Amino acid sequence: MNKIERPQLLPYLGRFTLLFLLMFGLTALGSPLFLPEFLLFEGTFNEFLKDLVIGIPVIVTQMLVFSAIFFWWQRKAAKKKRRA
Question: What's the 3-state SS for 8-37?
């Protein structure tokens, strides 16, 4: 049986990376910490980064875990579908 080749959006990035970037980007931009701080901050860039020490690492950790779970879940579902 011939497989249909699907064009990849970004061939150098894996599906896990794309999922992580999508989830992280949407969450970080929508978080109450990031966007208002970015738009209204007065000071140096280093001070801006120091203010984000708490929020952004938490978002990164959550999105890594969620991306890993969804990626694993999808692979498991695909294997199950191939067996049937």
Answer: CCCCCCCHHHHHHHHHHHHHHHHCCCHHHH
Where are the chain's structural domains? Answer: 15-83
30 closest CA partner among 56, 65, 48: 56
> Which pLDDT tens digit goes with each residue over 4-60?
666 665 565 677 788 888 888 888 777 776 666 667 777 787 877 777 777 778 878
Give Cα 23 distance to the centre of its chain.
4
* Angular region, 43: left φ>0, alpha ψ -120 to 50, beta rest: left
Contacts of 70 (CB under 8 A, 6+ apart): 19
To the question of pTM greater than 0.70 for the whole model, the response is no
Q: Which of 78, 56, 55, 75 is nearest to 67 (CA)?
A: 75
